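Cross-check.
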Amino acid sequence: MAINHALREAAVFAGGDGRFGYAAPTYKEGKRIAWDYLKRFSSVIPDVKPNEVELSLDVPNGSRLFLLGAEDPDSLRGPYWDGMVFDEYAHVHPRAFPEIIRPALASRQGWALFLGTPFGRNHFYDLYERARRRDDFLVRCYRASESGVIPSEELDKAREDMTPEQYAQEFECSFEAALVGAYYARELEQARAQKRIRVVPWEPTGPAVETYWDLGIGDPTAIVFVQRMGRELHVIDYYENTGQALHAYAKVLRERPYLYGRHHLPHDAGHRELGAGKTLAEQLEALQVRPVMVYEKNDPIAGINQARLLFPRLWFDEDKCRPLLDALANYRADYDEKKRTFKEHPRHDWASHGADAFRLLACNVKFGEDARRPAGWKPKPHRADFNVFTVFDPPRSGRRP
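Predicted model, tokenized:
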């Protein structure tokens, strides 16, 4: 339906230079899901020209339809769009539409179509609920028990082969079902039930705000802002961006009103870059950002388990931390199609970066509270080129810890 809709809109477009897109979560998925359909449905249009190299279709009136992947949302920047289809929108990066495609549709007054299966209360859920309250959206939900497309006997067999959560999500369009393989699904559900996801303001007279980073060059950089209030950890803000220099992230810190304590970096920030001749930690220190490196064992599962234990102490600002909450909800184990089981490591996708920064928070709290410093303890470098590495970072004279 979505492919035919996009093809029809391209074929009847009167401007002569229409640009339409069909975006799947990844480019590979887009090709596998939609390309054969698109060629077959367009074959009845005279003089249509499919391009196998760039997966595009030229329509005789001058319009062009592209198959796209949204794994890197910034790759969608640049072109204007008259219409865009998002397939499996629950798995598309949440920045792709509001930040990149929506402005590109505005100048042409274009349309957008979103379809997919629910995947927890993520950005697809937010869009669905928002669209139901707006007159300019058409919203439809087709549950297997109501549509009649699949025979009831087949649905009964599916129930026997699937968990109740899997069946509710895949066949009954349930946003409430726990995500299969998601690491923090129960913890987030409990946090919502206990009203720990709400407005969590910054307390100017409270302790200094600390940040936890996941550094990326080609990948996004994620920053989690935390204020410790007694035993409670208030996650008050979150920032993520791609392809920015370090000074841009230092500017982000300065533009926020917070009073900062430590800025915690992963241990690989101590690796010296050949081009710059300095470590990332040294470069940030030159930008007036006080870095502290946290040593994390090379075992993501151990860090995830520590984060689960930390959850009861966490409070999240619902608005400022929405991208982080989406990332945590979608952070899940990778699945081995051949062995038909979950792998022992997390799936690496758009949700990984926020989840990695969050895991660094959990590891730091564990080290900072469980370990004990002997008298006269001094920080020792983990490697020879770590000149600012420390787990505890004792307070400097005259400064708040």
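The longest strand covers residues 232-241. Residues 369-401 have pLDDT under 50 and may be disordered. Passed to J.P. for a second look.
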